[in-house]
Specification:
Elements lengths: L4 E4 L5 H9 L3 E3 L9 E7 L6 H5 L6 E5 L8 H6 L3 E3 L6 H16 L2 H9 L19 E5 L3 H10 L5 E5 L10 E2 L3 H6 L3 E4 L13 H7 L4 E4 L8 H9 L5 E4 L10 H5 L3 E3 L8 H20 L8
Parallel strand pairs: 1-2, 1-3, 3-4, 4-5, 6-7, 6-9, 7-8, 9-10, 10-11, 11-12
Length: about 300
């Protein structure tokens, strides 16, 4: 039926495509069917959706983002076209926060490097693994105290000497110290965890000055968007000894990762897997399908942005 098919954009995770296949909805891949068929489309969070494609779909009612971040979608353009946008908040919050904590522990205690030391047989040969850093008692800063940022702060709180944060405005109901901006936050903490949304407004927010404020003993953790951190400045700070270490799940220009980051001995790197648990991805897929059903039926959306 015209305007009732779903366009599945390339790059969707397997659980999402499986959920679409089992949904009973009419699903089309790119270049399948007529533009007039498409009433909704599904796109992975972080993938840039071409506005020209939206213009070519005259019956489009809904863009369903598989992810919490929707910075790849021009929401203003969609709204002007009468197209709603949904995302998948909440269902991935705990898993992303868990990974952030895992990166904190992995970087400070250098867990991957010490495991390699053991696996390479260096311990058996009588070698001694280099000393690492204590986790307990450090000052932790969270840049962006939204759903995920609050979950990260809650995980850090039991062993932190202090938890501070910066968001666009102070958050009511939290006891953490508020910093006026990213620079002030970095200047007052030992570990900075980036959890702010992506998009033009936050591109390069963690720049050379912020990294310099963290200092040579400072640690940067990023589970937000790669472009929030000035990647060239980060590499320069690491190579120059002006930053101790970094734990990164996201990269500017991913999936390509600069060789300098791959080579740095105190970088712990993961391939954008914050929400990559069976539980989170299943819940995300279910929420996308629920939004698609509601949007195509003209009913209230579950999680409009």
């Amino acid at each position: 039926m015209s305007g009732n098919a779903v366009l599945a954009m390339p790059g969707l995770p397997a659980l999402m495509t499986q959920a679409l296949a089992a949904s009973g909805l009419t699903v089309r891949a790119m270049d399948e069917g007529a533009p007039e068929e498409i009433g909704a489309l599904v796109v992975s969070g972080g993938v840039v959706l071409d506005t020209a494609l939206v213009e070519r779909l005259p019956k489009l009612k809904l863009i369903a983002v598989h992810g919490v971040g929707y910075d790849g979608v021009d929401v203003a353009h969609a709204t002007a076209r009468g197209v709603a946008v949904t995302n998948t908040p909440d269902v991935l919050t705990e898993d992303v926060a868990d990974l952030a904590l895992g990166l904190v522990l992995s970087v400070l205690r250098q867990i991957p490097a010490t495991e390699r030391f053991l696996r390479d047989g260096e311990w058996a040969k009588g070698g001694r693994s280099p000393l690492t850093r204590r986790v307990t008692g450090l000052r932790y800063g969270v840049l962006g105290l939204g759903r995920i940022g609050r979950a990260i702060a809650a995980r850090l709180e039991p062993f932190a000497g202090e938890v501070a944060y910066h968001s666009r405005r102070p958050v009511e109901g939290v006891a953490y110290r508020y910093a006026a901006d990213a620079l002030a936050l970095a200047d007052s903490v030992d570990v900075l965890v980036v959890a702010t949304p992506g998009g033009p407004g936050t591109r390069g927010l963690v720049d050379a000055d912020v990294l310099a404020a963290l200092g040579p003993d400072g640690v940067l953790i990023n589970i937000a968007r790669g472009e929030v951190v000035d990647q060239a400045a980060l590499i320069d700070a690491l190579d120059g000894g002006r930053l101790y270490a970094a734990g990164l799940d996201v990269f500017d220009g991913e999936p390509v990762v600069p060789q300098a980051l791959l080579d740095h001995p105190r970088c712990v790197l993961t391939p954008h897997v914050g929400s990559a648990t069976v539980e989170a991805r299943t819940a995300m897929a279910d929420l996308v399908v629920a939004n698609l059903r509601a949007g195509l039926a003209g009913e209230a959306l579950l999680t409009p942005v």
